[in-house]
Amino acid sequence: MSVFSYEALDGRGRRQKGEVEAESERGARQKLKSRQLVVRKLTAIEKQHQGKGGVSQTRLNASETVLFLQQLSTLTEAGMPLIDALGSIADGMSKQASRRAVFTIRKKVLEGGSLAEALRTQHFDEVICNMIAAGEETGQLEAVASRLAQLLEHRQKLNQDLLSATLYPAIILAFGMLVMLFLMTVVVPKMVAVFERAGGDLPALTKVVITLSDFLREHGGWLVVLVAGLLLAYKLLMRNESVHQRRDVFLLRLPGISTLLVTIETARFSRTLGMLLAGGVPALAAMLIANQSWSLLPLKAIGEQARESLREGESLATALKSGGYIPSMAIQLLAVGEQSGQLDAMLLRIADHYEKEVSRNLGRMLTIAEPLLVMFMAVGVGALAMAILLPIAEMNQLVK
To answer: Mean pLDDT for each 10-residue chunk of the chain (400 residues)?
Structure first.
């Protein structure tokens, strides 16, 4: 079936827009006619939204992907055929773009392709595509979809914890900087005019604040351009692998920060690899996919070396230990999992442990950051207030 976008008029002459699924354009017109709609425009969505490669460019976001996998697991487990399940999921999507993406997946499956191939054309994550392929081969599609939904939920939770730990301090810092900029560029210049008319010598703190205020008012625009240029230059430099490598090595040498980063990376890698192995993906293929979850290049290199060592018959625990970054407890648990033949379950246990540790560490960092930021704001605003009040106090003394 195909999906058509339409514009039509109802019985009262009001314009209606929407989408309809049908075998052909003629079938779509008949469906709309049965709804007592007069078609003015009818366009196949595949023609309207195809990119250069002839594939629809719409895709699902992270939350919609989790919902898609959860519904796919529930409907297929209840015995609904895959085609009907995909159609039901598409009908339940609230956004038109998401509905188009699922309809495109359904069409690919109807044409004889596998679900994994259809998901790959919609730019789904390689982890999802490979696990779905393994589920189709083993006949456990519903179980694999359920595991994938859990994997993505854990990823989202970890990302939300990281966002919460950085967003709140960033908002406080930005607000404090805006307050100080307002005082420096609006309040201080007005006070300077009063001081100049009164005459007298200004305190050193007030002179410093006035100098900074003049600099910001004269060169503030150039400072904004400079900051934007530095951010753009940083983004471009990160495309260079050698520069990116040096940046990551530097981060892994920072006390405190390095431990947190390695813990996050270990949790993400362990959960991805554990889910892949539990879903029936072969070990070497699972390692190839799981290595894509590393965001720090030195750790990714360790993962790639571990995969080569695994190919040669070496244990995963020994291969990862040689890099020197992976926590020793994770290495020990991996060794136990390999010896007991329950590596997938042990990897998921490692991921659970380190995700909880990440949450605890982020909570501690946030607890420490809050009072420090409040102190920073208090010192900055207090210094500006003193710079304004000191000359006023001196003027009162002169009047007396």
So the answer is: 73 76 76 80 61 52 84 85 85 78 84 86 81 78 80 79 77 80 76 66 77 80 89 90 90 87 90 83 83 88 89 86 85 90 90 88 80 82 78 64
- Amino acid (1-letter code) at residue 281: V
* The 3-state secondary structure of the chain, one letter per residue: CEEEEEEEECCCCCEEEEEEEECCHHHHHHHHHHCCCEEEEEEEHHHHCECCCCCECCCCCHHHHHHHHHHHHHHHHCCCCHHHHHHHHHHHCCCHHHHHHHHHHHHHHHCCCCHHHHHHHCCCCHHHHHHHHHHHHHCCHHHHHHHHHHHHHHHHHHHHHHHHHHHHHHHHHHHHHHHHHHHHHHHHHHHHHHHHHHCCCCCHHHHHHHHHHHHHHHHHHHHHHHHHHHHHHHHHHCCCHHHHHHHHHHHCCCCCHHHHHHHHHHHHHHHHHHHHHHCCCCHHHHHHHHHHHCCCHHHHHHHHHHHHHHHCCCCHHHHHHCCCCCCHHHHHHHHHHHHHCCHHHHHHHHHHHHHHHHHHHHHHHHHHHHHHHHHHHHHHHHHHHHHHHHHHHHHHHHHC
Helix 343-399 to helix 328-340 angle (10° resolution) is 160
What is the C-alpha separation between 23 and 1, in angstroms, rounded? 4
Q: Do domains 62-150 and 151-400 have the same CATH topology?
A: yes
Distance CA 144, CA 132 (A): 7
Q: How far apart are CA 280 and CA 290, in angstroms?
A: 14
Among 210, 229, 227, smallest CA distance to 218 is for 210
CATH fold for domain 62-150: Receptor-associated Protein (1.20.81)
- Which pLDDT score is estimated for 226? 92
Structure tokens, 171: 């908002």
- The CATH label, of 2.60.40, 3.30.460, 3.10.20, 3.40.50, for the domain at 2-48 is 3.10.20
33-59 per-position pLDDT tens digit: 888 788 888 777 654 444 444 444 556
Q: Residue 174: phi, psi to the nearest 5? A: -65, -40
